[in-house]
Specification:
Elements lengths: L8 H22 L10 H8 L1 H33 L8 H5 L8 H14 L6 H25 L3 H9 L4 H30 L2 H7 L6 H10 L3 H18 L10
Length: 250
Amino acid sequence: MNKKAYWALPYSIFLVLFVVLPLLLIAVYALRDSSGAFTLSNIAAFFTDPKIVNPFLVSLEVALENTAICILVGYPVAYILADKSLNRSAVTALLFILPMWINALMRTIATAEIFAAMGIGLGKGTLLFGMAYDYLPFMIYPIYTVLSKMDRSYIEAAQDLGANPVQVFFKVTLPLSMPGVMSGVMMVFMPTVSTFAISEILTNNTIQLFGTIIQENFNNLMWNQGAALSFVMLIIIGLTTLIPGNKNEN
């Protein structure tokens, strides 16, 4: 036990049992039919079955809209939080974390009850509101972290060269904050595509997202089909992490 490497053993065991093994099981189930024979039909259904393709396209649409809303709302908030001349209290940043101390499912149910009390019908509008409410902090804090650590000398240099505040923002602040924006996009877009509880509660299941289709397959004991859709989702997530803009540069 004198070697430091031994201390990593519990984490390695945990990683194998609860990360690597479940992913392998998903891959195995996805590439087999109900009789255990190898097949690609489960994967092919993702591209050919309208009952799968249409919810996936709806999920992409909702995810894009939710991500856009979170950027439009989250970036100004992060900018204000990171600017010490506009925000002089560290408590302000804490206020955006407080809702996350409550279970997301409970927050969503409470939001649905508020809409019901106000007589607002559930639909796409309430879905986007709930999505933005749940995922907005995941957009704010990556941007806030990058902005708060930004070297202010770049801004001062731009000002010394005669740039006005608008030019400073678009030519200096925004480009330098893009790693935070891309991190926020990843943390908002992908969970939105795969979620199901929020859409079920805030639309009375009238709008089915991709995550709902996966859940229904597992609920109906269609393990192979559900695993195949999950496997495709994992591949999509993996591919998005390879986008150059998602990697922070030192």
